[in-house]
Amino acid sequence: MTSEAPLQKLALLVWAADPSRPELCATPFYFAAAAAAMDVEVEMYFTARSVELLRQGVAEKLEAAAGSGKSVADFRREALAFGVRLYACPTALASHGVPDGALIPTLAGQAGAAAFLGRSLDPAWRTLSF
Question: Which of 18, 62, 80, 93 is most exposed, with minimal Cβ within 10 Å?
Answer without folding.
Answer: 18
